[in-house]
Amino acid sequence: MAKIAKIGSVLGVDEQGFIIRKANIDKIVEPWRSLVDEIVTAYLNHWSDQVHNIYIRGSVAVGQAIPFISDVDSFAVVSGNYQDCDRHWFDGFNQHVRPKYPFCKGVELSPISGDRLRDFDDYGYGGLRMLIVTQAACVYGQDISPELPKFKPDIDAVSHAFDLSEDIQEVSFDLLYTTPQKPPNEQTAYVHKLGQWIMKRILRSGLEIVMERHQCYTRDLYPCYQIFSEYYPAQKTLMYQALNWSINPLDSPQEIVDFLATFGSWLVAEIDHVYPPQISDDFLLTN
């Protein structure tokens, strides 16, 4: 069982209440910097005519990456239709860098549309705008964050909580009915993947209902648990359970489903209390 490390970065706010970005290319140091340089080269080799900017987010971007635990999350801002970008090289690139950089758990690669980022009426890209402005370091091209709106830790920064009810329903169904259809040798890995994913959603949703009161923002799991627990001490033990299972996944689909039916349902109800349905519905209609 992996030990739960009390680590993570929390973003504060400036005098106007906007989230302060910590991510910066200068914080990406060796041995991670050489890997990031290879990521940049790979994007340019495969999408040379389309790439405008390349970003790194997560622990690597703030200089807090942990060898053999952290991965590298990257994305390229491209011109034209991002869906036309060939992704077949992703697996090969990971196979290439894995033996060369064994301290990295993996590299996430993705194209996103520059046109949609700059179209502020395209509310489907609101979460990506927030990601760039608050959590990503530009490692190639001109940083476009000054062109994008700033964000405060309020309803505009919610990216998990409003989907949690649907996420719980879908994961519960898949755990109970899709898992048995998998080959026996794949079932445990499938349950682990679903369980860890929904536990991370719970932790981040928990943070989202207290971030305005605490005037902060984070996606890191331990700070999500810690800050949530300051405002909901009665739920601290259950949120710690979610934290533990996000790192040390459960084998039992039924145990996960039971937890989602109890604590998950409580959290969904509390989300509705903090962000009443009419307010959140209005937000979703405009975003």
Question: How would the blueprint of this fold be written?
Answer:
Layout: H1 32-47, E1 51-57, E2 72-78, H2 89-100, E3 107-108, E4 111-113, H3 114-118, H4 126-135, E5 136-140, H5 164-178, H6 184-208, H7 211-214, H8 221-231, H9 236-247, H10 253-274, H11 277-286
Parallel strand pairs: 2-3, 2-4
Antiparallel strand pairs: 1-2, 1-5
Helix pairs in contact: 5-6, 5-10, 6-8, 6-9, 6-10, 8-9
Could you explain how this protein is built, in words?
With 287 residues, the protein is an alpha/beta fold. It folds into 2 domains: 25-147, Beta Polymerase, domain 2; 155-286. It contains 11 helices and 5 strands. The chain has helices at residues 32-47, 89-100, 114-118, 126-135, 164-178, 184-208, 211-214, 221-231, 236-247, 253-274, 277-286; strands spanning 51-57, 72-78, 107-108, 111-113, 136-140. Strands 1, 2, 3, 4 and 5 form a 5-stranded mixed beta sheet that branches. α2 (89-100) links the parallel β2 and β3 (107-108). α5 (164-178) packs antiparallel against α6, α6 packs parallel to α10 (253-274) and α8 packs antiparallel against α9 (236-247). The mean pLDDT is 94.
Key terms for this structure?
287 residues; Beta Polymerase, domain 2; alpha/beta; 5-stranded mixed sheet; 49% helix; single chain
Main beta-sheet strand count, sense and barrel state: 5 strands, mixed
Give start-end ranges of low-pLDDT stretches. Answer: none
**Total of domains:** 2
Strand content: 5-15%
Total helices: the number is 11
Shape: globular
Averaged pLDDT, please? 94
The share of residues in helices is: 40-55%
Summarize the helix and strand pattern as letters: HEEHEEHHEHHHHHHH
Structural class comes to alpha/beta
Alpha-carbon distance between the two ends: 40 Å
The total of beta strands comes to 5
The whole-angstrom Rg is 19 Å
